[in-house]
UniProtKB/TrEMBL annotation:
Residues 1-21 form the signal peptide. Keywords: Signal. This is Leucine-binding protein domain-containing protein. Residues 45-384 form the Leucine-binding protein domain. Belongs to the leucine-binding protein family. PANTHER family: AMINO ACID BINDING PROTEIN, LEU/ILE/VAL-BINDING ABC TRANSPORTER SUBUNIT. Pfam families: Peripla_BP_6.
Length: 411
């Protein structure tokens, strides 16, 4: 029997005899606590509301990755726990529910990783709690640059998310600055000289417009605007008038509220039919494309990390076939990211070896990832937790559907 196991049993016996609370590590550091040979990987996503379908594709990808290893990594059994960070009354993620999910994972001594969130606002809530608990957090969808980098971030970011001072968060999806780089190239390819930008007043959208305002001029694209809109408004006449007065020939909306974007794009096109319209991956959905009037669709262009199947390597095409065989449907934008997030968590456990049940060792293994071969492409994890993946897809809308055009490799 290993010495560590003997020590744990002695400690438990003492706890029962003396009535003490329990057994920790030498300094009761949660990052070093012994959790046995059964590990739990939590997933937290909005299973209700407008992004429920995308969340389900992420979960399907995560489950597929875990099933491929038979729920085991070396001597460890890995359990999967899916949590819903939305409520029946919320339109997507809910702040209280997100906080509750993070506490659930933090208080479970078998937790070895947390896969989430979908929305940047949710991660801003969950990350400090999980960081204090020393739990590796990998997001398959959150792109907010301020979670990992200072350039283009709000005051205090990213340090305010890491109360321990140690990085514990990373992602398999490209951060906002990569998408903005792709947007700048796409807009310049479409002949844009000046772009007027608005956001939907949420963290994700504001991050994109702030970065576009910062980086656009450096690449020769004039940018103006950068105000928030009310997604619930029925009329955007004032914003359309300001767009016209700016002299911009292009418009970008940072956000993911499909109904608001459809109303805004339609009003802009009615008043200013020559203005080209641009949107990010949060709006790169089939429902958004299908809801655009034909005239609006013709001048709408989007960026999305998902590529056409033919543009992925062997591992990517193999995943897409496996996903369809398992579930009878397409993986969507996020299925592959959910799959890789789970695979990366399992990889970190495996790389930690006999310390695969030690939170700190698993975090260190995650940040040591270099030149990893994956369905998404080959990548490394930087010291800030971001993936080195760069390629982004550009899309147009035709026949009520998203049509892939090319891969953009942002500089």
């Amino acid at each position: 029997m290993r010495p560590r196991v003997v020590a744990i049993r002695l400690c438990l016996a003492a706890a029962l005899t003396l009535g003490v609370a329990g057994c920790g590590g030498d300094d009761d550091d949660p990052g070093k606590s012994f959790v046995g040979t059964t590990l739990t990987i939590y997933s937290s996503l909005p299973l209700q509301g407008p992004h429920a379908e995308e969340s389900q594709s992420i979960i399907a990808g995560e489950k597929l990755a875990l099933a491929e290893v038979g729920g085991r990594v070396g001597e460890f059994t890995v359990k999967y726990a899916s949590l819903d960070d939305s409520t029946a009354d919320s339109k997507g993620w809910d702040a209280r529910q997100s906080a509750r999910n993070a506490r659930t994972a933090a208080q479970d001594r078998t937790t070895i990783a947390y896969l989430g969130d979908f929305d940047a606002g949710a991660t801003a809530i969950t990350l400090p709690t999980l960081n204090e608990a020393g739990i590796l957090q990998i997001s398959p969808a959150t792109t907010l640059v301020g979670l990992t980098q200072a350039e283009g971030a709000d005051k205090g970011e990213p340090d305010k998310y890491y109360p321990t001072g140690k990085r514990t968060f990373g992602r398999v999806i490209q951060a906002d600055n990569v998408q903005v780089g792709a947007q700048i190239q796409l807009q310049k390819q479409q002949g844009c000289k000046r772009t007027y930008v608005l956001h939907d007043s949420a963290a994700y959208g504001k991050s994109l417009t702030d970065l576009l305002t910062l980086l656009g001029p450096k690449a020769g694209l004039l940018v103006s605007g950068d105000e928030g809109i009310d997604p619930e408004a029925d009329d955007y006449e004032a914003q359309v008038r300001e767009l016209a007065e700016s002299g911009a020939d292009c418009f970008f909306l940072g956000g993911m509220d499909e109904a608001a974007a459809t109303r805004l794009f339609t009003q802009i096109h009615t008043a200013l039919p020559a203005v080209k319209l641009f949107a990010p991956n949060g709006l790169a959905t089939e429902t958004f494309a299908a809801g655009l009037p034909q005239g609006v669709a013709k001048v709408t262009f989007l960026t999305n990390p998902r590529l056409a199947a033919r543009r992925y390597g062997l591992a990517g095409r193999r995943f897409l076939r496996s996903y369809r065989k398992a579930y009878g449907r397409d993986a969507g934008t996020y299925g592959m990211y959910g799959y890789e997030a789970m695979r990366l968590a399992l990889h970190a456990v495996a790389e930690a070896g006999e310390d695969g049940n030690q939170k700190e060792a698993v975090i260190d293994a995650f940040f040591a990832v270099r030149n990893r071969v994956s369905p998404l492409g080959d990548y490394s994890i930087g010291e800030d937790g971001d993936t080195s993946l760069g390629g982004y897809g550009s899309y147009r809308v035709a026949g009520g559907k998203l049509v892939f055009e090319r891969v953009i490799a942002p500089t």
